[in-house]
Amino acid sequence: MSADDPTLWALFLSAFLASTLLPGGSEVVIGTLAYQGHHDPWALLVIATAGNTLGGMTSWGIGRFVDWWFPSQNVQQPKYQRAMAWVRRWGSPVLLLSWVPIVGDPLCVAAGWLRIHWMATVLWMSLGKAARYGVIVLAAS
């Protein structure tokens, strides 16, 4: 396994895109790679978690800086209002759920909008995402 392995870059890209506001299916990619057994499971876990967390931080950044580009009323969609209520109530630990489809992206955007510190965001987000990928790797290995 090397840094120029296109399979691992594809996993990283898949995990990154799956955690942005774009649709993606990184679970299938990491599950397939873990099942094939050609890569170290820890490497798969770290690469997928890093890509997915970076994608989530992109969503956090969108939320953090959206008011520079758009007036506040543009973030009044119900999915963002619900996510903001969760983040206000539970704080950064709610980002353990950032991996959940449909819910996770708005949580990341809301955390940025509400100015949750980036280090707390990375910590809780990466823990949730690593746990999810860990379960997939264990199940597929």
Automatic annotation (TrEMBL):
Pfam families: VTT_dom. Keywords: Membrane, Transmembrane, Transmembrane helix. Residues 27-139 form the VTT domain. The chain crosses the membrane at residues 42-62, 94-116. This is DedA family protein. It comes from Candidatus Nitronereus thalassa.
